[in-house]
Amino acid sequence: MAVDATGADAGGASFGTVQAALGVVAFSLTFPATAWGLEGFGPWSLIAVRSVLAAAVAGSCLVVVGVPPRERSRAWGRVAPPERRHWLGLAVVGAGVVLGFPLLTTLALQTSTTAHAAVVVGLLPLTTALLSALRVGTRPSRTFWIAALAGAAAVIAFTVQQSGGALTSADAYLFAALLVCAAGYTEGGRLARVMPGWQVIGWALVLCLPLTVPMAAIALSLEPVRLTAHAVTGLLWVAIGSQFLGLVVWYRGMAAIGIPKASQLQLAQPLLTLVWSVLLLGEHLPVAAPLTAAAVLVCIAVTQRARG
């Protein structure tokens, strides 16, 4: 059943919210998993190999799921590529969420803690909503914007307080990552209204293969690799969990409930990342975290109920 951008159908909107929330949970594990991956891979190797692995999974899905069962023996020749008018949008998705965000955040995490890097996703919901208003023409209500700004302020205040209020050398990477990721989310959410969400990220990953395959080969030949349990687990998660499956449900959720409302669910992402960082990396859980979490949940509830 078709669902419009505002999520007018109640059942479809509820399911869309669940899917977008699952995407946020998947994304919240990205920074800790990247930290694990960097224990055994160089930054360029981790970035390229994760994209190639994700593209392999996505390409297999495009071949197997994208054609009728009786035609699967000749599957590759039967896969219909997206319409030409969608290729530019897919390129933006690829540049933003397949290449740009992983590259910039991985470089930042070489010198930044996961708590400090969370300032990126603290600003990402608001930036995505703003780009959506400019690109797609969405016009959320004043209540939505007030709650979105309040939620962003709470997350930013929390993350900056945790980093001592000082900017680091990684901040240039983080703010650039914020912009390219918001652009990729906005364009992907727009495309997911006219084609299945899993095909949006699937084709974007495949489109990037001419860049990621040579990049992986060169990086692996130049950077040392140590195949530890942490490194392999981190690589597999950022490739399959964050880069593909998380984006599949995320884009489906954005198509169902609208880009602005879906983006505000990411206000919870920095706090979820902090929890994973405590559990997986042994980082300290600040006292302010529960209070910030409560404030963020209130803001999320308001944005989901406001006209978006």
UniProtKB/TrEMBL annotation:
Keyword check for RNA-binding: no
InterPro entries given in the database record: AA-Vitamin_Transporters, EamA_dom, EmrE-like
Subcellular location: Membrane
Keyword Zinc: no
Domain EamA stretches: 16-157, 170-302
Transmembrane stretches, start-end: 20-38, 44-67, 87-109, 115-136, 143-160, 200-222, 234-253, 287-303
Protein name: DMT family transporter
Topological relation to the membrane, as annotated: Multi-pass membrane protein
Record key words, sorted: Membrane, Transmembrane, Transmembrane helix
Family listed: Belongs to the EamA transporter family.
Domain of life: Bacteria
Main location: membrane
Gene source species: Streptomyces rubrogriseus
Listed PANTHER family: EAMA DOMAIN-CONTAINING PROTEIN, INNER MEMBRANE TRANSPORTER
